[in-house]
Amino acid sequence: MFVSRRLATSARLRQFAYQPRAIPIQTSSFSTSRCHNAISDSLRQKAQQNNQQFKLDNLFNVKDKVALISGGGTGIGLMATQTLAVNGAKVYITGRTEEKLNRVAELYGKEIPGSIIPVPADITSKESIQNLADAISQRESHLSILINNAGISSHTQTTEHDNANDLRKSLFDDPDATIKDWEDVYRTNVPQLFFMTTAFLPLLKNGSKTHHGWSSTVINISSISGIVKTAQHHFAYNASKAAAIHLTKMLANEISGSPESRLPIRINNIAPGVFPSEMTTGESDEMQKSYIPKEKYEKKTPARRPGKDEDMGSAVLFAATNQYLNGQTVVVDGGYVLAAGSV
Ligand SMILES: NC(=O)c1ccc[n+]([C@@H]2O[C@H](COP(=O)([O-])OP(=O)(O)OC[C@H]3O[C@@H](n4cnc5c(N)ncnc54)[C@H](OP(=O)(O)O)[C@@H]3O)[C@@H](O)[C@H]2O)c1
């Protein structure tokens, strides 16, 4: 018998089509094949115990953890410092300006469950990182949280030119557009993540042994500038932050991801959008805090505002405590990347 090709195809398709099965009508609303027995008191108790795991105290507990934060005296580093210290961690803060660090310890380190301890260092110098590691090792047997936050921005240039000569004038002829500027921003924002992390590996490993159920963690503060496709008028800074994100992933892979190493240390990065800091505003007040008027970002971010202390604080707690987070970028930007677009 002749069957057209079209008919044969539709017959074949019907063969694989969803066939509804006849479901027997239940005589009672309680099916013994699907549900367990009635709920006993001991089962209820077990459920109560299970509920405890979801308490904030358990999920986001940093009490008695030892932390080190670079650039902890201002901006985002200060937000991270306060977050950990007011929740019971012992937080060492480092930076080049001792006065800033001391002021933070005096202002924010009193009458809180944790503590803030200044230790000055320059994270662009390997020798200074070594001295810092020695200083912390002399005081502590372990480190639970390392936040590599210190960073600087680069020279800014306009890109809004519609002819080659003007664009060249802005990007090349500008006397402040120097290779040294690129080197400076790279030196501060990138190699330090490598040298700080590797200098503290033994202390970090001890941190995982010290607290049951805790793997020590490195959190690099990168930026959405390493993700968006626009140069935001600072090519060198954005290139350095893209490098910071990639370096975080390589470190996570080599230190804890590969079967050869598998150290119990989680390495992630937080990519902030715009937050008030000395970098973004050029100054800080007597509280060592900086301020950006909300209106300035009304049209620039879907959140219609710059980031707040609490936005950064909750991201830091999440990245520090979530034991299943490793090798990732946590973007906290009020939707900036959504609007600006990524590469
Ligand atoms: N604020 C934002 O909108 C934003 C957005 C995305 C990413 N970020 C990143 O967040 C991090 C913190 O920046 P911030 O915005 O909070 O700016 P900030 O207030 O200027 O903080 C930077 C901190 O880093 C320290 N620092 C700089 N160079 C150092 C060095 N060589 N050795 C040791 N410490 C050094 C500074 O202290 P000293 O000068 O005393 O050394 C300062 O406390 C940076 O990595 C930045 O790229 C910021």
Automatic annotation (TrEMBL):
A Pfam family annotated for this UniProt entry: adh_short
GO MF annotations for this entry? oxidoreductase activity
- Write out the GO biological process terms: secondary metabolite biosynthetic process
Chain positions covered by the region annotation Disordered:
276-310
Family matches, as InterPro entries: NAD(P)-bd_dom_sf, Sc_DH/Rdtase_CS, SDR_fam, Sec_Metab_Biosynth_SDR
| SUPFAM superfamilies (alphabetical) | NAD(P)-binding Rossmann-fold domains (SSF51735)
What highest taxon heads this organism's lineage? Eukaryota
Extent of Basic and acidic residues compositional bias: 286-310
Question: Which keywords are on file for this protein?
Answer: NADP, Oxidoreductase
Q: Which family does it belong to?
A: Belongs to the short-chain dehydrogenases/reductases (SDR) family.
Identification of the protein by name:
Short chain dehydrogenase/reductase family
* Source species taxonomy: Eukaryota, Fungi, Dikarya, Ascomycota, Pezizomycotina
